[in-house]
Amino acid sequence: MHEYVAYAAVFIACLARTTMPYWNKKRQNKILEFNNNYFGTFLSALILSGVIASLLFPQIKLPDTNVSNVLGFCLLFTQAWGMNDIINTLLLDLRK
Question: In total, how many domains does the chain have?
Answer without folding.
Answer: 1
